[in-house]
Design a protein that fits this description.
322 residues; mainly alpha; 0% strand; 13 helices
Length: 322
């Protein structure tokens, strides 16, 4: 489902910058943008904390399906309006492709979240925008300037610091989160192509519908009895995911990404504190260092593109969805 780099499953913005903010408003409201982004980060960390609390009591497929059902209920008015208005011609294959990629991503993310420390899941999730950038170059022919390539390599180095292959055993949880990051990147690339023919509300609503339908058969295969308390927790997951993306959109509307993007690193700090205080998880300094390296690389890319726009130059690539 988030977002800033630590995107979590759920409602996802259709573009990296959901709306072109008013330059005058951006120049005088950066503090408000930072505040909205802080609220967004806290919402996403609360969401991951709840899933960590549920743990392995429910299969990942069932947890993710129920979470998407609650999200679909919240999006029902938008979905009904979009279906009544009619979908753009030729867009259904893209909607289905995004739904398939996002379905796999959500299952892998729930699986990893139930087994890994909150901070580690958050840090690995920072790879999402890096993978989207690489996907844009591979599939959309977007050019990568030298500085952008260097930043991507630095970010991948940050991932190596987190995972430390060869120095420790990589378990199913780490591999699942890496797979989730790749699949989320694929989902975002589909959304980027869809953004040329459909509105953001339609893209998000159709994603929720297709993922819910995609998760249903695999959830039924592994279905176990679910308690009212577990349903309540999963409903809260949907609420926090929706709130997180709403707060993020408000941040984008009042401040440029060059201001709001670095704030997302605080998600890793919140996640570390939550894991330590609520679940007794140890603080892994290398996870923090690796997350900081990835965020520094992403922030540099964001700052560089903002600088090019201010000078009236064309960035090396089109803005990518994060």
């Amino acid at each position: 489902m988030p977002a800033a780099p630590a995107l979590a499953p759920g409602l996802l913005p259709a573009r990296a910058e959901p709306a072109r903010p008013n330059p005058r408003a951006v120049s005088v409201r950066p503090v408000e943008g930072v505040a909205w982004m802080l609220a967004s980060g806290l919402s996403f960390v609360a969401m991951t904390g709840i899933i960590r609390h549920i743990g392995t009591a429910l299969p990942a497929t069932q947890s993710s399906f129920l979470r998407m059902v609650f999200g679909l209920i919240l999006l029902a008015p938008v979905l009904v309006g979009s279906l009544r208005a009619g979908l753009p011609k030729g867009a259904m294959p893209l909607f289905l492709g995004r739904g398939a990629a996002h379905t796999v991503a959500v299952i892998l993310w729930f699986y990893a979240m139930a087994r890994l420390p909150v901070a580690e899941v958050t840090a690995i999730g920072y790879l999402n925008p890096v993978l989207v950038t690489l996907g844009g170059a591979l599939f959309f022919g977007e050019r990568l300037a030298f500085r952008r390539i260097a930043a991507i390599l630095v970010a991948l180095g940050g991932a190596a610091i987190i995972l430390r292959p060869g120095l420790r055993e990589l378990g199913a949880g780490q591999l699942a989160q890496l797979g989730a990051a790749c699949c989320f990147a694929g989902s975002y690339l589909f959304a980027k192509r869809l953004s040329a023919v459909a509105g953001a509300g339609t893209i998000v609503a159709m994603m929720s519908l297709t993922v819910t339908v995609g998760l249903l058969p695999v959830a039924l295969i592994t279905w176990v009895p679910v308690s009212a308390a577990q349903l309540g927790w999963l409903a809260l997951v949907a609420v926090f995911a929706t709130a997180g993306h709403y707060f993020m959109s408000r941040a984008f509307a009042v401040a440029p990404l060059s201001v709001t993007q670095p704030v997302t690193f605080l998600q890793l700090l919140w996640a570390t504190l939550l894991g330590a205080l609520a679940f007794g998880e140890g603080v892994d300094i290398w996870v923090l260092v690796g997350g900081l390296v990835i965020m520094a690389a992403i922030s540099y890319i964001t700052w560089r593109e903002a600088a090019l726009r201010r000078r009236g130059a064309t960035p090396a690539t089109m803005p990518v969805e994060t």
